[in-house]
Design a protein that fits this description.
The protein is α+β, with helices and mostly antiparallel strands. 31% of the residues lie in helices and 27% in strands. It has helices at 25-38, 51-58, 62-74, 104-110, 129-135, 171-174, 179-185, 204-209, 261-284, and strands spanning 78-81, 85-88, 94-97, 115-124, 140-149, 152-162, 190-192, 195-201, 217-227, 232-240, 244-247. Strand 5 and strand 6 form a beta hairpin. The longest helix is centred in the last third of the chain and has 24 residues, at 261-284. The protein is elongated, with a radius of gyration of 30 Å. It starts with 24 loop residues before the first helix and ends with a helix. 22% of the residues are buried.
Length: 286
């Protein structure tokens, strides 16, 4: 155990910066402000401290502060306004129809938005037991992707697809591409399948991927997509950030009331009368 000499600054300063080891100072400041935004002390529309105030707070140069703010701007978390400082940006809202299979890019485009896809990994891996039953194989690709809306991560996707059907899948092929669109291009036409949605708490890994807080509520969409013949094409988990709205088109189903025996008797008598009149007409026409 090492003991610091009297009067020496601790390695972890009061302002939260580690100057002896760890990431660059601008990245540390960016992450500190990022946590404050995620944990809601800094609400959308609220101003950030000025560059001068941040310089004094963290004891760094203006160039370091500007790098930190630039990093937050690139993540879509703040808006930088010339002469007016920086304010916390409102998170963009992703809207999707839960009863539609796929077509997330089209749904975003209908709201004037554009999604971007980044592929983290494509690797040969056995699927979970429930996916084996849905896909009828253990020879699968495991594909991990993050979907971005206005440079803000809104969904993390983990998908298993049969390698026998899609042996050519690679990270390069799937980058910024529609998975279901690639399936169609290779002769397999997704038709849909059962889905379920549940609320889950973000673990450390998901929180990092979706730039959210640990134990923040996420919406998990899980399901299978089959073609018209019932072949399983994908089994997936999609974790959505809290700024996701699922639209549902609910319909009221009217149940027919019971028909009384008296009503049935009247209909039967009416049918007999019509048949008798039709027979008379046919005889007169001969």
């Amino acid at each position: 155990m090492s003991v610091q000499p009297a009067g020496a600054e601790p390695r972890e300063r009061a302002n939260g910066l580690n100057r002896e080891e760890g990431p660059p100072l601008h990245a540390q400041i960016r992450d500190i402000l990022h946590r404050q935004i995620l944990e809601r002390p800094l609400l959308p529309g609220s101003p950030l401290p000025t560059e001068e105030e941040l310089q004094k707070q963290f004891g760094v140069s203006r160039s370091v502060v500007r790098q930190a703010l630039s990093g937050l701007s690139d993540l879509g978390l703040i808006r930088r306004q010339r002469g007016r400082g920086s304010v916390v940006a409102a998170a963009p809202v992703l809207r999707r129809h839960i009863q539609r299979a796929g077509g997330l890019d089209e749904q975003a485009a209908a709201h004037g938005q554009r999604l971007r896809t980044h592929v983290i990994a494509v690797e040969q891996a056995a699927p979970p037991e429930s996916a084996v039953e849905a896909l009828n194989t253990t020879n699968t690709w495991k594909i991990e992707r993050i979907r971005y809306l206005e440079e803000v991560p809104v969904a993390f996707m983990r998908t298993w697809v049969p390698r026998d059907l899609f042996p050519h899948f690679t990270r390069e092929l799937l980058e910024n591409a529609s998975l279901l669109g690639l399936m169609r291009e290779h002769g397999y036409h997704p038709a849909g399948g059962p889905r379920q949605v549940q609320a889950v708490a973000a673990g450390a890994d998901l929180a990092q991927k979706l730039h959210t807080g640990t134990r923040e509520p996420l919406l998990l969409l899980q399901g299978v997509t089959r073609d018209a013949l019932g072949h399983g094409l994908e089994w997936f988990n999609v974790w959505h950030s809290p700024n996701t709205v699922f639209d549902v088109d609910a319909q009221v189903t009217s149940q027919p009331g019971r028909v009384s025996q008296e009503h049935i008797r009247r209909l039967r008598n009416l049918t007999q009368q019509l048949e008798s009149e039709l027979a008379d007409l046919e005889r007169g026409a001969r």
